[in-house]
Specification:
Length: about 240
């Protein structure tokens, strides 16, 4: 007669650890001069203060020569960034010495393959077509950044809080806009943003921006178009 034993149940999993390629803004360090870096960061933040709140960045040291990397004060730079609401998520392009020091202050190393897709050599036989539009079918998640260079951007899904979408032309969002949307980023004042559900953290046309706290309740969570009328940012129901 077979014996049936009650095997102990496995406890529920508390977490999952998976590999995933994420899109982050890359901050390329070109000088070890922290004072100079702080000045230029402050000037950049002043152009759109609310855009850089809790802003994740990947630190890239590839352009900094090895001897300058070894003298770089990564601990002070980390504090400098966090005081300005930047959040370093990792680093790449650093030598052994800088990687070791960075590990001591809690900054990990991301391999070049995960930091950015490899560049493909241009094909001489066929000319590369100029990008005129970009279509995104999946949700844009928190921490991701999408940029349609030279054209329009269409997103068929939700743009999550903490995500950022940008285009040199127009932006069309067929899901909810809950993150940041910036159209006409290279000065196109004719660009527009169209979305089906406005609940954004920030919207911007050609550098003129408005944050969520300034939205009127009459246009919040409704289909709208966003455009410039002279220097004034307009939000109208569709």
């Amino acid at each position: 007669m077979a014996l049936i034993q009650n095997l102990p149940k496995e406890p529920p999993r508390a977490f999952e650890l998976k590999g995933r390629m994420m899109a982050f803004s890359v901050l390329r360090v070109l000088t070890p001069d922290l004072r100079f870096l702080a000045q230029q960061l402050d000037a950049k933040i002043a152009t759109a203060p609310h855009l850089f709140q809790n802003f994740p960045v990947l630190l890239d040291f590839e352009a900094l020569p090895q001897e300058l990397q070894e003298a770089f004060d990564i601990g002070r730079f980390d504090r400098l960034l966090r005081e300005r609401s930047f959040v370093p998520v990792g680093m790449c392009g650093a030598g052994d010495v800088l990687r070791g020091i960075a590990g001591g202050v809690g900054i990990g190393t991301i391999s070049p393959g995960l930091a950015a897709p490899p560049r493909q050599p241009p094909k001489e036989a066929a000319a590369q077509p100029r990008l005129t539009s970009l279509l995104i079918k999946e949700p844009v998640r928190s921490g991701q950044q999408v940029y349609a260079r030279g054209g329009d951007l269409t997103v068929l899904a939700t743009v999550s809080p903490g995500a950022e979408i940008m285009a040199d032309g127009n932006i069309h969002i067929y899901g909810s806009l809950r993150g940041r949307a910036l159209a006409g980023v290279r000065g196109n004042a004719e660009a527009r943003i169209f979305c089906q559900d406005l609940d954004a953290e920030l919207i911007s046309i050609s550098g003129r921006y408005q944050i969520s706290e300034k939205f009127k309740e009459t246009i919040r969570k409704r289909p709208v178009q966003i455009f410039l009328n002279g220097e004034r940012l307009m939000i109208e129901p569709l």
